[in-house]
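so i finally got all the pieces together for this one. its two components total, 409 residues if u count the protein bits. some of the lines might not be protein, just check the labels. i wanna see the whole assembly predicted at once instead of chain by chain like last time, that was a mess tbh
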Amino acid sequence: MHEAAKVFLALRWGWLDISIDTTVLLNFCAALFLIACLFLIRRGLAFQPKGFGQNLLEAVVEFTDAQILRPAGLNQAWLPWCLSAFLYILFTGLPLGILGLLGPQWGLGSAVSNINGTAALAVLFFLVSLGVRFRQHGFWGFCQSLVPTGVRGPVVLLLFPIEVVSQLFKPFSLAIRLFANMSGGHLLLITILGFTALFNNVAVWLASYGGAIVIIFFELFVCCIQAYVFTFLGASMIGEALNGE
Amino acid sequence: MFRLEINIIFWTLVSFGIVCWVISAKIYPVLAKILKNREEKIIADLANAAEKSRAAETLHNDLAERQKNIELEAHRIISEAQEKGKRQAAEQWQVWQEEFRELRRVKEEDLRRAEEDFYRHFEERVGKMLYAACAKVLRLNLTPELQQQILQERLAELKKIKEF
């Protein structure tokens, strides 16, 4: 799908290769930028909101509460987790659009355009949902929750593996959905800008760059949507584990 | 095509963990406290406003009742005052009538006395004037024409006084 990113710092932890490459660096930059923004907003937090930052953060918190937590059936204790996931995906996805202005190959280096990054987040959500399911229902309840309610007899033997596979496919579909949606726009961007190399024509150049600019802004919108979709589906997975529905 | 990149998985989880810790431990508690305080204040203000609204409603009803009573009281007082005023006016009219009749009687008495005095003085004066005229006529050696003229003049004066 993409070339190996340039390694800035080669690190190893036992047999694990934890080198810092372009993708990791972009990831760190996005996370640091997010943390810096949050601390800047925190410094100006007041009982009566004064600045744009606090209003924006409160709006995001309200949005997370109303549009993610409540529909997913989670309580307020899960708000920091869901807020973190939403903001993290949003900020790590933003380089897709922002760095896309420098060139499509730059944007593709961000974490959410890499299947490993999206898979890590999806598996994390899946493991959390498994943990919640174990804690809520116990081992026997956990096994029972994998069988649809009202099913008895030999049908259980048929449905149990299907349910297990469907549970296992959830993080897979989460990871693929985020990865495909985030990187799809950039592939389109590369294709459109590739026309400029094929056709040395002013009209093609204008159409390509005009279309590229539109797609870059559209990608910012897609990034917000996908951050919401991923967080909502992850939260639904946890909510399902918590409520047993 | 798809390659397992442990470093990306590891650092993604690390950076997400850091973000999650920052939000959970440093940002959200402060924000949640502010939001909770604001919510409590809004709830308290709303309750206070509802309480004040109820008090205002009670006060308004009380005021309307009192205003109604005041209007009734005012109407009663005005009616009583009008009745009393009419009664007092009638009594005063009677008093004035009495006073007027008394005054008129006194004045008529005074007038009658003055008239009597006048006539008494008038007769005395006319008598004195006639006496003086006769004395003058008799005392002086006047011609009969002149005597006649003086008597005519005195009689004319007498007539004038009498007319007066």
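The longest strand of chain A covers residues 7-9.
Residues 158 and 176 of chain A are 27 Å apart (CA to CA).
anyway lmk what u think
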